[in-house]
Amino acid sequence: MKVTRAQAEENRERILDNAAQLFRERGFDGIGLNDLMQAAGLTRGGFYGHFESKDDLAAQATKRALQANRVQWQQQAEHHLSAWVQTYLSDAHRDHPGAGCGLAALAADAARGGAAVKTVFAEGVESLAATLQGQMPGGDDAERREQALAMLSTLVGALLLSRAVGDAGLSRELREAARHQLPVGG
Question: What does 90-142 look like in DSSP terms, one character per residue?
């Protein structure tokens, strides 16, 4: 049975959505093509009709995850940045990487990834930093950019470390310390 162009695009979107979630949960090497395609309700045979390689999928899924993050960050930052910081550094966000921040979930994979993934990741960092920059209390653009980059680094680093330690108390301490160091989080 021939797949229509519309169905092929729908399949591609489903693959990207599932990959964005599963890569955040398990990392690029933590899930194979068979499982990725199965999660999308498809067979592995159709994979190469949509993507050149798993690296290509990783880059596109990373872009998808980071674009979703930017939309969420914009919505939250426009209202109450301090409340958003609380949510970002929450137990729920720590415990559900598949639905959370792509920067924290994919940073280590991107660091070991190919050029396409690194390019997409850098674009995501720039985009999210720009979203935060307008919310920073600094005087000029350079000062607000520096504050935004520091805030982004602090948030992502604290979340990443809090996920990596097996100690609930230390996890909480890491996130609390970060929260208190931020210009809007404490």
Answer: SHHHHH-GGGS-HHHHHHHHHHHS-HHHHHHHHHHHHHHHHHHHTT---SSHH
Q: Residue 20's CB: how many other CB atoms inside 10 A?
A: 26
Phi, psi at 161, each rounded to 5° = -65, -40
Rounded to two decimals, the pTM is 0.86
Secondary structure letter of residue 28 according to DSSP: G
The structural domains of the chain, ordered by start, are 5-181 (1.10.357.10)
* pLDDT of 183: 76
Contact between 110 and 55 under an 8 Å Cβ cutoff? The reply is: no
Tokens 């909480």 locate to 172
The answer to whether the Cα torsion of 43, 121, 28, 22 is positive or negative is negative
- Tell me the average pLDDT of the chain: 91
